[in-house]
């Protein structure tokens, strides 16, 4: 029995054109877009306009807490910082919102110590973080 190319083509159909080129091109474009987004996200979130860190806190009396925290500002933006005092049952008993003054260590921020009132004795203090006009997520 002899087989010829036309008989095989009639029996099994002709070879379909390859889709490998467009698929590889699409995968390359998606990888470039995804990689660019990943680099931008890492840079944007890795260099915030303001960051803060709780250094120490103490309970002054049943209705007062003293807090010391460090603020690092990038540029000349005004930062708004927020702290929360918590009771033994983790209920918020005090809240403090403070705008960082421009003379707090110069344009780069600095160390800030302040007191705020509570409605009952606090057992811990949490620095929620600081925000600016261009950074609405507390850090």
Automatic annotation (TrEMBL):
Keywords tagged on the record: Membrane, Transmembrane, Transmembrane helix
The protein's name: DUF4307 domain-containing protein
InterPro entries in alphabetical order: DUF4307
Ranges that cross the membrane: 21-43
Pfam families given in the database record: DUF4307
Domain of life of the source: Bacteria
């Amino acid at each position: 029995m002899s087989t010829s190319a036309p008989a095989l083509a009639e029996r099994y159909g002709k070879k379909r054109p390859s889709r490998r080129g467009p698929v590889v091109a699409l995968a390359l474009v998606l990888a470039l877009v995804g990689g660019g987004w990943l680099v931008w996200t890492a840079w944007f979130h890795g260099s915030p306009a303001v960051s803060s860190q709780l250094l120490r806190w103490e309970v002054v009396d049943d209705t007062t807490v003293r807090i010391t925290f460090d603020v690092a500002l990038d540029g000349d933006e005004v930062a708004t910082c927020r702290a929360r005092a918590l009771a033994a049952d983790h209920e918020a008993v005090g809240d403090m919102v403070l705008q960082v003054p421009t003379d707090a260590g110069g344009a780069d921020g600095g160390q800030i110590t302040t007191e705020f009132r509570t409605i009952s004795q606090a057992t811990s203090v949490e620095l929620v973080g600081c925000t600016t006009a261009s950074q609405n997520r507390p850090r």
